[in-house]
Amino acid sequence: MENRIGLKFKELKEKGKKAVIPFVTAGYPNLDATYDLVLAMEEAGADIIELGIPYSDPIADGVVIQEASNVALQNGAKITKIMATVKKVRRKTEVPLVYMLYYNSIFKYGMEKFMSECSEVGIDGIIIPDLPLEERKDIIAIADKYNVYLIPLVAPTSKERIEAIVEGAKGFIYCVSTMGVTGARNEISTNIEEYMKVVAEYTDVPKALGFGISSAKMAEELKTYCDGVIVGSAVIKKIMEAENKEEVIENVKKFINELSTACKK
């Protein structure tokens, strides 16, 4: 059975459109809100949705996502509860879903157990920002068994390692647009055109740009160079600025709709 991520990129390519990939921290502000947010984001035009599994020491994340992670952990957003929420979401939608989590979380939970549950509840891919290249083989073997894609991350500094990182990749390549941690930025100083050309030399798997994209205007400027844009901290900020759950949904829907309009032009 083909993975939903592959099918989504195929569908978008045929239409000449780019993917909008928002990120939210699972359990922020709570798991009920996560359930509603996933459905609202899809309705507003999200093509693939990333769910961050909260972690106490998220080294790749900036202050916004760290804060969301802390709140989610305080509210008891454990992997088992997140899996149950995803299972509930899957009764309503076929939108591709991807977990973003740290290596220690999956290691402690048990890799086989984690992948098997991902497959069971309907998770299509996982991103592990701190996964060492050397440890990847074992995880890929287990992920393949359960038809879960391991999405690799490349960065502008990965140059001589890009070939090894993208080898055998499935789903999409997460192209980190800028150095440092996640977080909304007003501009990106990397030469994106040159960077994406380098990545394209080694793989024809779809490429999505993330880290620092904070507005529909930025998404529109960057979509030329990639197959999708990933927006995380800017989405979390919209949640943080809301006074209540209704406003959370309203703020996020409006923002995703703006991103979708920019990427589907």
From TrEMBL:
EC number: 4.2.1.20
Subunit-level organization: Tetramer of two alpha and two beta chains.
Catalytic activity annotation: (1S,2R)-1-C-(indol-3-yl)glycerol 3-phosphate + L-serine = D-glyceraldehyde 3-phosphate + L-tryptophan + H2O
Cross-referenced PROSITE patterns: TRP_SYNTHASE_ALPHA
GO molecular function: tryptophan synthase activity
Active site: E50, D61
Key word tRNA processing present: no
Function: The alpha subunit is responsible for the aldol cleavage of indoleglycerol phosphate to indole and glyceraldehyde 3-phosphate.
Protein name: Tryptophan synthase alpha chain
UniProt cross-references to NCBIfam families, sorted A to Z: trpA (TIGR00262)
Organism encoding this protein: Clostridium thailandense
Pfam families per the UniProt record, alphabetical: Trp_syntA
Keywords of the record: Amino-acid biosynthesis, Aromatic amino acid biosynthesis, Lyase, Tryptophan biosynthesis
Family note: Belongs to the TrpA family.
